[in-house]
Design goal:
alpha+beta, 2 domains, three-stranded antiparallel β-sheet, 17 strands
Length: 252
């Protein structure tokens, strides 16, 4: 097979992966607190016994765009937005601790506070649970207060406190489940999980939106599609030239 086909085939494969990342970003344009995933292509020289005259391409995901999303004032007591370096702690599906900027808190049928189906962790560890049917409010410091049905307003009392943590953009990385975790470098200095930070503040009744720009993402998708078509044309042209070369050789 002509080496040009290998080059075009590798580029087409990585272009498809980039399209997948762009599609994921587009699908999360309305997900609160979502951080757009970044993609990049890099050249990889082909090493061997011969001269290093060929270079292939590979894709990489260097991280996420940590630009804050736009604030949306919902007025819903369980919607919260954090300051730029603040994160909410949740218990992920494998039992580990993850971090998210998604402040769309829900109450499960068992009274647990959840985000995207994952239990929200409390300041003292474990999931936050509230009394069934109670009216919930969340203070600026993450204190969760509950008012039981039929009780006077002055009887509202704190029942838990959300675990609010502080992490710089370069200290966290996105996992396959969409939750962020500490990088290996950050774990070496801060431990496996982050400690609660009393300086973190949040706003109740506000949601931080996704930072994905739909128009720019659509433009990236179109550009990737055209790039993929061009690479397919290269493969087709090389194959056609190979067939014609074989025909000429057979005639001689």
């Amino acid at each position: 097979m002509d080496h040009a086909i290998y080059t075009a085939m590798g580029a087409a494969s990585q272009t498809m992966e980039m399209q997948g990342v762009t599609a994921s970003n587009l699908a999360n344009t309305s997900t609160p607190g979502f951080r757009a995933q970044l993609t990049a292509l890099r050249a990889v020289p082909v090493n061997g016994e011969t001269y290093q005259t060929r270079t292939l391409v590979t894709g990489s995901t260097p991280g996420a765009d940590m630009t804050p999303g736009q604030l949306d004032y919902t007025g819903r007591p369980l919607d919260v937005a954090l300051q730029q370096d603040g994160w909410l702690a949740v218990q992920t599906a494998d039992g580990s601790e993850g971090y998210t900027r998604n402040g769309g808190i829900q109450v499960s049928s068992t009274g647990q506070l959840t985000i995207q189906g994952l239990p929200v962790m409390g300041d003292g560890g474990g999931a936050v649970t509230v009394p069934e049917g109670s009216q919930i409010t969340i203070g600026a410091d993450g204190t969760v207060s509950a008012l039981n049905p039929g009780d006077p307003a002055n009887t509202i009392s704190p029942v838990a406190k959300l675990k609010l943590v502080k992490a710089a953009d370069n200290e966290v990385t996105r996992g396959d489940d969409g939750m962020f975790r500490l990088t290996s470098a950050a774990q070496a200095t801060r431990g496996q999980t982050l400690q609660s930070d009393p300086t973190i503040r949040l706003q109740s009744g506000v949601l931080e939106g996704s930072n994905v720009k739909p128009v720019a993402a659509m433009a990236d998708m179109i550009a990737s599609s055209r790039r993929f078509e061009m690479q397919m044309k290269v493969i087709s042209s090389v194959d056609e030239m190979a067939q014609k070369s074989n025909q000429l050789l057979s005639m001689s």
